[in-house]
Amino acid sequence: AASGWCVFALNYGFADGAEDYGTGDIRVSAAQFGAFVTEVLDVTGAEQVDVVGYSQGATVARYYINELGGSEVVDRWVGIASPSYGGTFYGIGAAFAALPGATDIVEGEFSVALVQQLQGSELLTELNTPTDTVPGVRYTTIGSEVDEVIQPAGNVALHGEGAVNHVIQELCPQDLTGHFNMVYDPFSLQLARHALDPDGYAIGECTSVALGTGIPELILQSNT
Question: What is the pTM of this model?
Answer without folding.
Answer: 0.91
